[in-house]
Write a structure and sequence with these properties.
Layout lengths: L22 E4 L1 E4 L2 E8 L17 H26 L4 H17 L4 H11 L5 H23 L2 H26 L13 E5 L4 H4 L7 E6 L7 H9 L3 E3 L4 H4 L5 E5 L4 E4 L3 H22 L15 E6 L5 H6 L5 E5 L13 H14 L5 E4 L10 H5 L18 H6 L1 H14 L5 E5 L5 H20 L11 E5 L2 H5 L1 H4 L6 E3 L1 H9 L17 H16 L4 E3 L10 H6 L4 E4 L4 H9 L3 H12 L4 H10 L1
Parallel strand pairs: 3-4, 4-5, 5-6, 9-10, 9-16, 10-11, 11-12, 12-13, 13-14, 14-15
Antiparallel strand pairs: 1-8, 2-6, 3-7, 7-8
Helix pairs in contact: 1-2, 1-5, 2-5, 3-4, 4-5, 11-14, 14-15, 18-19
Bound molecules: phosphoenolpyruvate and magnesium ion.
C-alpha cells in the first residue's frame, strides 16, 4: 500500500542520541520521500531447521550442500570486503579486520572441519552440523574466558565467540534460504536498516508501521526497489558501510530522493528533514487534485496512465491515483512466502478481487515471471525449478521458458485469469519472450485452456481476452515486427531491457552506475519496438520504471508512446508532466535525443529539458 497519510508524527519528538556524531552515508535513491525514525537493525530470524539428520546414503550430498553454502557466504563477504575499500579510513579500520576474520572462518577452520565431520560421521544435516559445531566452539571459548583469562582477554574471547555465531548464522541462512521475517518486531515509525533485503522480504513489510528503509545492497530498478516504491516507503539501497556505522538507539534520516542516509542528524539537519517530510506530504495533497483531470497534452492528445500492481495492498492507492487500469499485475506475489503453490481457485479469487476493484478498467495480468532475482521457494519445494544459486537465473529458465516447460503451472494460471475475466476486462501478458515460437506455443495452450473451461460450463466469448507480451530482451525488441504477428499487444519492460542490453544486473549495487535506461542502445530498442507496434497496429505501452519518471515523459511521448503503466505514487507527477507538454515539441526533443551517441549527453538533455 502506498501511504495515503503522512508518516506517523512521532519523529517530532526524536533527537540524535547525545554524544553520537552525525554520520552521512550515500547510496542509491530508490523510493522518494524523507523518513525520520529510530533505526531498527533487522535481526535475522532464528532459521527454521526442518531436518536434523540424514541417511548415510545422503551424507555426501549434504556435504556438497555445505560446501555450496560456504562458497556463497564467501562470495557475499568478498563483496562486502571490496565495498569497505570505498569507505572513509576510520570505517575501514573498524570493518576490514572483522570481515577478514569471517573469511578466515570460511577457510580451513575448526568450524568447518567440525561441521564436515558431523555430517560425514554423525549423519547430521548441514544446518544442524554448523550450529552444533559453532555452539561447541563458542562454549569452549567462553568457558575459558570465565575460567582463567584476564578481563581484556575475556572481552576478546567473547567477541570471538560472537564472530563464530555470526558466521554460522550466515551459513545457515544460505543453507535454508530463510527470508528476514523479524519485521513483526519492527517498532512503529522505525527506519529498517539491513545488509540486504530480498523482494520476498520487502513484500512482508507493513508500510503503515515503517518510516523508511536503508540497505547496504541493492540497485535502482531491482525488484526490491520496485517493491519499496510500490509500498511508498522512502528508501535508499546500496549504501556501503551502513551496518558498520549504525548503532542501536541511533536516529536516522533517509532521503529516498537524494539517496542519502544520515545517522544521528545534527539539530539543523533534523529540522530540515522535518520540513522535507511536511513538504512531501503537502505535495501529495496537491497531487490529489489532479485525480479528476484528464491525462491530456496541451494539444489535446489523450495519454493512458495505468498502474503497476505488485501487491494487493496497493489497490486503494491505485484507485486514488485515478489510474486508467492496471497495465502490469506482477503475479509473483501470489507465489511468494508460502510453502505450496496456489491452486486455480485461490488464484482466480485473487485476480477477481483486483478486477472487481478496478470496476471496468482493464487489468493486464502477467503470468508468473520466475527467475532473475525473483526467487520463489514454493516452486523449488514443488521440484519445478532448480535452486537459483546453482544457475545463472537471469539467463536461464526465466518467465515464459519455465511456463512452457511446466505446462500444468501455466494452464492453472491461465484458467484462473480467464475465470477472473468474468468480473471485468482482463488481458494476459507473457514475460521474457524471445521468440515467435514461444508466443505461438503459449497461444495454443491458452486456446486449449479456453476450450476446457467452456466444456466445464464457463461462458467465454469466442475470442479470448488479448494475449500480449513483454518486450524486455534485446532479442524481442529487435524482432518486434515479427512478434507483432502473434502478440495482441506489447508492454515494454525497460527494467530488464536495460539490464539485458547493457549486461548489468538490476539489483547489483556494484554495477549500479552502469545501469542506464537512457543509454542510446536501450532507447534505440524502445524506438524500434514502438515503431514496429505502430506499423502493425498493436497497442504498445511502457511498464518498466522509466514510465513513472516524469523527466522522461517528454522523450517517451516523442518516441510515439501514448500508454504508460507505473507505480501508483508516480502517476500524478507523470500526469502533471503530460498536461504541460505538446506532442510536436516532444517529437523534436526525441529526435535530438536519438541523435546522441553518448549516454551522458542524453542525460544532460533530459536534465535541462
Ligand atoms: C521490466 O522488466 O521492465 C518489467 C516491468 O518487469 P519486472 O520489473 O517485473 O521484471
Ligand atoms: Mg521484467
Amino acid at each position: 500500500m502506498n501511504r495515503t497519510e503522512p508518516p506517523p508524527p512521532q519523529h517530532r519528538r526524536l533527537a540524535a542520541a547525545p554524544g553520537r556524531p552525525e554520520k552521512r552515508l550515500a547510496g542509491i535513491a530508490v523510493s522518494p520521500g524523507v523518513a525520520i525514525g529510530p533505526v531498527f537493525g533487522a535481526a535475522e530470524p532464528e532459521p527454521e531447521i526442518l531436518r536434523h539428520r540424514v541417511a548415510a546414503a545422503d551424507a555426501p550430498a549434504e556435504g556438497a550442500r555445505l560446501e555450496a553454502a560456504v562458497a556463497q557466504s564467501r562470495k557475499q563477504l568478498m563483496k562486502l570486503r571490496a565495498r569497505v575499500g570505498a569507505l572513509p579510513e576510520d570505517s575501514q579500520v573498524e570493518l576490514a579486520p572483522l570481515i577478514d576474520a569471517y573469511l578466515a572462518m570460511l577457510g580451513n577452520s575448526r568450524l568447518l572441519r567440525g561441521a564436515r565431520r558431523r555430517i560425514a560421521e554423525g549423519l547430521q544435516a548441514a544446518e544442524a552440523a554448523v550450529l552444533a559445531e559453532a555452539a561447541a566452539i563458542a562454549a569452549a571459548i567462553t568457558g575459558q574466558a570465565g575460567r582463567d583469562a584476564a578481563a581484556e582477554d575475556r572481552a576478546g574471547l567473547r567477541r570471538r565467540a560472537d564472530e563464530i555465531h555470526e558466521i554460522a548464522r550466515r551459513l545457515v541462512r544460505n543453507l535454508t534460504r530463510a527470508p528476514f521475517q523479524s519485521f513483526a518486531a519492527l517498532p512503529p515509525g522505525a527506519v529498517l536498516i539491513c545488509e540486504s533485503l530480498r523482494p520476498a522480504d520487502a513484500a512482508l513489510l507493513d508500510p503503515a508501521r515503517l518510516a523508511g528503509v536503508a540497505a547496504e545492497e541493492g540497485g535502482a530498478d531491482g525488484h526490491t526497489a520496485v517493491m519499496l516504491r510500490a509500498l511508498g516507503v522512502p528508501a535508499v539501497l546500496g549504501v556501503p558501510g551502513l551496518m558498520g556505522a549504525m548503532r542501536p538507539g541511533d536516529v536516522a534520516v533517509v532521503d529516498g530522493g537524494a539517496g542519502t542516509v544520515v545517522l544521528n542528524p545534527s539539530p539543523p539537519r533534523l529540522a530540515a528533514a522535518r520540513r522535507a517530510v511536511t513538504a512531501f506530504a503537502r505535495e501529495r495533497r496537491r497531487f490529489a487534485g489532479l485525480r479528476r483531470l484528464p491525462a491530456e497534452t496541451l494539444d489535446g492528445i489523450a495519454v493512458e496512465l495505468a498502474a503497476n500492481l505488485e501487491l494487493p495492498v496497493e489497490l486503494p492507492l491505485i484507485q486514488q491515483a485515478g489510474a486508467q487500469g492496471i497495465g502490469l499485475l506482477r503475479s509473483e506475489f501470489l507465489f511468494m512466502n508460502r510453502e505450496g503453490l496456489p491452486d486455480e481457485d485461490a488464484q482466480a479469487e485473487a485476480y477477481r478481487a483486483v478486477v472487481e476493484a478496478m470496476a471496468g478498467a482493464p487489468v493486464t495480468i502477467r503470468v508468473l515471471d520466475w527467475g532473475g532475482e525473483k526467487e520463489i521457494e514454493a516452486l523449488a519445494a514443488a521440484g519445478l525449478v532448480p535452486e537459483l544459486a546453482d544457475t545463472n537465473p537471469a539467463l536461464g529458465l526465466r518467465g515464459i521458458r519455465l511456463l512452457l516447460r511446466e505446462t500444468e503451472l501455466f494452464e492453472t494460471q491461465l484458467a484462473a485469469i480467464l475465470r477472473a475475466g468474468a468480473a471485468g476486462p482482463v488481458r494476459v501478458m507473457l514475460p521474457m519472450v524471445t521468440t515467435l515460437a514461444e508466443v505461438r506455443a503459449a497461444r495454443e495452450i491458452y486456446e486449449r485452456v479456453g476450450r476446457r473451461l467452456r466444456r466445464r460450463g464457463l461462458r467465454l466469448a469466442e475470442k479470448l481476452p488479448p494475449l500480449g507480451i513483454m518486450i524486455e530482451t534485446p532479442g524481442a525488441a529487435l524482432s518486434a515486427d515479427a512478434l507483432a504477428l502473434e502478440a495482441d499487444f506489447f508492454a515494454i519492460g525497460t527494467n530488464d531491457l536495460t539490464a539485458y542490453t547493457l549486461a548489468v544486473d538490476r539489483g547489483e549495487s556494484d554495477v549500479a552506475a552502469l545501469y542506464d535506461p537512457l543509454h542510446p542502445a536501450v532507447l534505440r530498442l524502445v524506438q524500434f519496438s514502438v515503431e514496429a507496434a505502430l506499423r502493425m497496429h498493436r497497442p504498445v505501452s511502457v511498464c518498466g520504471e522509466m514510465a513513472g519518471d516524469p523527466r522522461l515523459t517528454r522523450l517517451l511521448l516523442g518516441l510515439g508512446l501514448r500508454s504508460f503503466s507505473m507505480n501508483a505514487a508516480a502517476l500524478p507527477r507523470v500526469k502533471q508532466a503530460v498536461r504541460g507538454l505538446r506532442i510536436e515539441e516532444c517529437v523534436r526533443f526525441a529526435r535530438r535525443v536519438m541523435e546522441q551517441a553518448d549516454p551522458a549527453a542524453i542525460a544532460a538533455l533530459v536534465a535541462e529539458a
